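Researcher: I've been going back and forth with a colleague about how Solute carrier family 25 member 34 might be arranged in three dimensions. Neither of us has a model we trust, so I'd like an independent prediction. The organism is Drymodes brunneopygia, in case that matters for your notes. Sequence below.
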Amino acid sequence: VKTHLQAQTLSAMAVGHQHNHENISSAFRSIYQQHGVVGLWRGVTGAVPRVAVGSAVQLATFASAKDWVSERQWFRKGSWAAVLAGGMVSGVAVAVTMTPFDVISTRLYNQPVDADGTGKLYRGFLDCILQISSKEGLLGLYKGIGAVYLRLGPHTVLSLFFWDKLRNM
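Model: Here is an independent structure prediction for Solute carrier family 25 member 34. You can compare it with whatever you and your colleague have in mind.
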């Protein structure tokens, strides 16, 4: 529903497939009526790996980066500066690893579908990766990485900073 509504624009400006929902309620209703409950979960094959990879990278790089800056004596171990530095490194790593999954999920969510709910552009997660890579190159998987970092960077830094401080309490 979110992706349908975010991609929607005036027909004069439209790029790609348009769903033309009036509001969130009509989007839920329309998707459910056309494709059932399964239609509300379309694209989940791109979202689940995104969250799994993102969470793993976030925690692993945070701990490693925080220790690394402390070992080099850039910041004192356990200091707020070491925690922030670890969070910043983790934010970059999260953006780099999650952006391809964001691109794939968005393409899967937003593609037009047949009457039976089958995507008209991509057969699934792997097909989407292969098509993007072959037609747009590997950098096609990194479209919007700047916007992804602007969203995930501060979120990662703040989440990990507060998590670390609360954990130490």
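Researcher: What would you highlight for our discussion?
Model: I'd start with this: The radius of gyration is 20 Å. After that, consider the following. Helices lie at 2-7, 24-40, 44-71, 80-110, 125-136, 145-168.
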